[in-house]
Amino acid sequence: MSTLRIAWFTADTRCLGPGKRFALWVQGCGRKCEGCIAPSLQDTAGGKVSDTAEILREIAESGAEGLTISGGEPFLQAEPLGELVKAARRLLPGLNVIVYTGFTYEELRENPSAAGLLAETDLLIDGEYVRELDDGLPMRGSSNQRLIFLTNRLDPGDMPDSRTNKIIFTEKGFRMVGIPSKGAKELLGIMQEG
Ligand code: SF4
To answer: Residues 34, 161, 74, CA angle at the centre, nearest 5°?
Structure first.
């Protein structure tokens, strides 16, 4: 089976969409948006290479209602991610899928290599992060980013009405899950300096 370069995942979060979710952060993004909250995920040679079969097993065992894919830039690895989501849906038929991307929907529609993952995406949150437009809207980092519902598995009424995030402590330090509010970003900055 194929491989994916990933940063990490968590099998149980409620911070990045409705219900219990499996959240996967892929590694690698070429944008360098000013104020990016995940600069360590930009390096395309960073993170680790994982078998998609192994990630699929983790998703299946999680029993999640939804899968959120973020990064990094998911569409740099669109083909293996599309295969992964397709296989995950066979194991968890009700699974809904949210994908974050720095590309716009229009750009992705013109890119044949994006088609497989786009076809498996229920909600696309598109566009790069613009710090000046980071005004606290839920589910997105800045207000230029759009919530584009591509299927009827999810709809705007399912979405949280405020930003939620959580810090998870790991052996190597900590990770933040979710879109940080202004206060959470300040806290994150203090923790990163410490
Ligand atoms: S698109 Fe996302 S991961 Fe990439 S640099 Fe911008 S904020 Fe960071």
So the answer is: 45
